[in-house]
Specification:
Blueprint lengths: L1 E7 L8 E7 L7 E11 L1 H7 L17 E8 L11 E4 L9 E5 L4 E2 L6 H21 L7 E4 L5 H12 L3 E6 L4 H6 L2 E5 L5 H9 L3 E6 L5 H7 L1 E9 L6 E2 L2 E2 L11 H15 L5 E4 L2 H7 L1 H16 L7 E5 L4 H10 L5 E4 L12
Parallel strand pairs: 8-9, 8-11, 9-10, 11-12, 12-15, 16-17
Antiparallel strand pairs: 1-2, 3-4, 3-6, 3-17, 4-5, 5-7, 13-14
Helix pairs in contact: 2-3, 2-9, 8-9
The protein binds NADP nicotinamide-adenine-dinucleotide phosphate.
NADP nicotinamide-adenine-dinucleotide phosphate binds next to helix 1, helix 2, helix 3 and strand 9.
Length: 355
């Protein structure tokens, strides 16, 4: 049987993505073959395509952090799982494909009746948001938080989960995202027209308890200025390394996985050295998953439960067929996207056969 997958052929722009057709992969010992129903498209995918994300594989590689799919075939030594079951996983790369083979222990069961695109949004974006809120910042009801990039994939997840946690929320976004931010319970601050540090101090007098900073670089220090004494910045992204979906520096063509992470580390350390009892803490979903895999599984199951109870509702910006991955990257790179872009390689919705 043949299938389609997307490969990054060189580090660069969206034209680095190519569609290939080849024999379906066969599951090895301990592996399960999954027919992909939905694969998330996120800024970390664009950064890997450009060769700057710390998790960038060597070329050629198939991008795609997260997926939801149907168990299709079991390798030797696999038990306790049946073909037809719906599962989710975060392979970090490889999800832009019709079929993928994954180790059984990577799979998390998905409850019946969920939409595949909504379910996949929980894997990277909502786990990131949930763990930053409840494991890094340990927020409590009534606290004030500032969410940067609040109309984006992780940003909208932070707003929905923050509202459930009873937080007072402020969110930076461009003018295209202001209505989405207020609909989700945040007070929008247009980062292109307003100085967010000044706005936060005008609106709260003392500053906020926590800032979630996805922008990175010197922005982390500005975020620190929006804190009340004793507050903390959770630094988790490097959105500033891209402009229009391409490298902000203009340089291109190589794999520089650790350069930006080293600079990121310097800014975090710098934040600790400044006076004012304000902390800057880094967050990484992949490192927390490697160090504490049980948290990942536990948090994803809790999030599926919230989705099943309709307490959260991921915003799906657009669904693209797998062969249009390049277009999906162009759209995300251009900016102004509210919520999550999803590739739907096979059926778009989860029906019967869920576990
Ligand atoms: N550490 C982790 O474990 C982890 C996990 C997931 C994601 N991330 C990181 O999180 C970040 C967001 O990812 P995503 O997939 O949610 O991206 P996304 O959907 O593209 O959202 C990014 C948002 O940031 C906004 N933005 C851009 N520049 C900004 C600025 N200077 N100030 C405020 N907002 C700004 C954009 O708004 P406009 O387009 O309207 O300008 C967009 O809404 C990325 O840096 C990604 O690498 C980290």
């Amino acid at each position: 049987m043949r299938h389609t997958r997307i490969i990054v052929t060189f580090y660069g722009g969206p034209d680095a993505l190519q569609v290939v057709e080849e024999e379906c992969p066969e599951p090895k010992h301990g592996e399960v073959r999954v027919r992909v129903l939905a694969a998330g498209v996120s800024l970390p995918d664009l950064m890997a395509r450009e060769g700057i994300h710390p998790e960038t594989p060597s070329v050629p590689f198939t991008p795609g952090w997260d997926l939801v799919g149907v168990v299709d075939r079991l390798g030797d030594g696999v038990s306790g799982i049946e073909p037809g079951q719906i599962v989710a996983a975060m392979p970090i790369s490889g999800a832009y494909a019709e079929f993928v083979c994954l180790r059984q222990r990577e799979l998390v069961p998905v409850p019946a009746g969920l939409d595949a695109a909504e379910a996949v949004s929980l894997v990277l974006n909502y786990i990131t948001a949930y763990q930053m809120l409840h494991r890094s910042a340990k927020v409590s009801p009534g606290q004030r938080v500032l969410i940067h990039g609040a109309a984006g994939g992780v940003g909208t997840a932070l707003l929905q989960l923050g509202r459930l946690a009873g937080l007072e929320m402020y969110g930076t976004c461009s003018s295209r995202g202001t209505s989405a931010v207020s609909d989700l319970g945040g007070i929008p601050i247009d980062y292109q027209q307003q100085d967010f540090v000044k706005e936060i101090h005008d609106l709260t007098s003392q500053g906020v308890d926590v800032v979630f900073d996805s922008v990175g670089g010197t922005h982390i220090w500005r975020s620190r200025k929006a804190l009340r004494p004793g507050g903390r910045v959770v630094a988790y992204g490097l959105t500033s390394s891209l402009r229009g979906g391409r490298l902000a520096s203009g340089a291109s063509g190589g794999r520089h996985r650790f350069r930006r992470i080293a600079i990121f580390g310097l800014y975090i350390a710098g934040g600790w050295l400044l006076p004012g009892r304000k902390r800057v803490v880094p967050y990484s979903i992949q490192w927390l998953k490697r160090l504490r895999p049980a948290f990942f599984r536990q948090d994803l199951i809790a999030l599926f439960d919230l989705l099943h109870q309709q307490k959260i509702k991921p915003i799906i910006a657009q669904r693209f067929p797998l062969a249009e991955a390049r277009h999906a990257h162009e759209v995300l790179g251009k900016g102004g996207v509210t919520g999550k872009i999803v590739l739907v390689p096979n059926e778009p919705s989860l029906g019967s056969g869920a576990v």
